[in-house]
Amino acid sequence: MTPREFIAKWQGSTLNERQSYQAHFADLCALVGAEIPSPASVDTYCYERGVSKTGSKHGWADVWKRGFFAIEYKAPDRNLDAALKQLMTYALALDNPPLLVVCDTQIIQIHTHFTNAPSEVHTIALQDISEPANLDKLRWLFTDPDKFHPKRTISQITEEAAGKFSDLAQSLNARGHAPQAVAHFLNQCLFCLFAEDAGLLPGKLFERLLDKSQTDPAKLSSRFEELFRAMRKGGDFALEDIAYFNGGLFEKTEVLPLEAQEIQTLLEASRLDWSGIEPSIFGTLFERGLDPKKRSQLGAHYTDQLSIMRIIDPVIVEPLTAEWQAAKVQIEKNLAKSKKHNDKAEREAQAVFYTYLERLKNFKVLDPACGSGNFLYLALRALKDLEHKANLEAEQLGLHRQVSIEVSPANIYGIELNVYASRTGARHRVDRRDTVDAQERLPHPPRSHPATAQPYREPRCADVASLSPRGRD
Fold this sequence. Notes:
It contains 17 helices and 10 strands. It is α+β, with helices and mostly antiparallel strands and 473 residues long.
C-alpha cells in the first residue's frame, strides 16, 4: 500500500474503534512492509492482548508486540489521553513495552516508555504520513524501537533542574533571606511544578504566571500569594478552580520577592520536562543546594536508585512478592471450587486478596536518618508497584480490583535532624506525587481526593526518644 492510498482510504473516516482498528492496523503493516499478527504469534504479537485473562470483551491493548509496542485505538475525535491512560494502567501486564501508541485513524501518537529516560511524544497526522521521517518512525515501531530512545537521561534532566533550584537558593540567601524561609518558599514552588505534571494544577499554570510576570516582580509576588492561599484551602484563582492541598506545606504563605534574573531562572526550571525528573535523585541534590554546609558537595556522587534498591528489593519487595505468590495459590484453589458468582469459595478467594492488600497497607518503613527522603520515596514506590501488580493479577484470576485499601504516604516514617533535609521537597512532594501517579494507573477514581494527604508534622524530640533503646537518656 502506498502512502497516497493509505491517506485516501482513511481520510475523514467515521468508523468507531471496534469497526476500524484491525483494518487500520493491517493497512499500517502493508504501508511499512510489516507482518500482521497471526494465531502462531499469539504469545509475542497479537490483537486484544489480555482479553482471555480479564474475562471481558476488551483486552489490555488493541495490538501488542512483546518488546516493541502496545497500541490502543479510539474513534476519531475521541480523547487519546484516555487511551494512553489505559495503556499505562496495564503496562506492567504488557511487559512494559518501550513504546505506547494511541491512534484514532487520523492521528498516531507514539509515546516513549523507556527505563531511566523521560517520555517523549511523536505525533504523526494522517495527511503527513507520506513524509520520509514519519514513514521511518512507523517502520521503527516494528523493527527498531530503540531508535526512539531519548538522548537525555532522567539523571541528566534531574541534575539540571536541581541546579536551577540551587542557583535560586544561593541567590536568595545572598540577598539576606533566612535559609529556612528560602527552603520553604522553594519547596512551595517545587511542589507546584510537580502538581502541574500530575494534573493537580491546571495545565502550565505556574509557568504561565512566571511568563506573564517576568517584567513585574511585585505583581508576581502578589500572584504567588493568591495562588498559595487558594491551594491552602481550595478555591478560585483567576479563572481556574484550585484543589485543596493539605499536609501543611501551604499553611504558611511567605512569598519571597524575586529579582529579574531569579524569575528567569525559575521560568527556565518550569519549562523543563518535570515528568522526566527523578525524585530519588532530586531530593539529595536539592538538599545540597539549600544547605550552605553541603553546597560544596553539589558535584559529588549521590546514592543512585539502583544502590538503594539493593536494600529495598531483598528487605521489602522479595518477601512481599513471595507472600503474594502464596496468596495467589490459595486464591486459585478457592476459585477452582467456585460453582457460581459470589458463592462461598469465591468470597473466600476475595478475602485472601483483601488480606494481602491490608498487609501492604499496614506495612511500615522507617528510615532513622532519612535525609531528603530518597530511601522512603523508593520504598513507597515499591509498595505501590506491589499493590498495582496484585490488583492486575487478581483481575486476571477473575476477582474485583480493590481501590479502598491502598498504600499511601502513611506507610513511611523518617527521622532527620538536619532541617534542610527534612524540609526539602521530598517530604511534601515525592510521596504525594508517587501516590497520585500510582492511583492514576487504576481505572476507578481513588477513594480520597488525590490532592490531599495526611497532614505533615515536624518530628519532635519525643518521637526520636521513644524509638531509642535508652528512652529519653
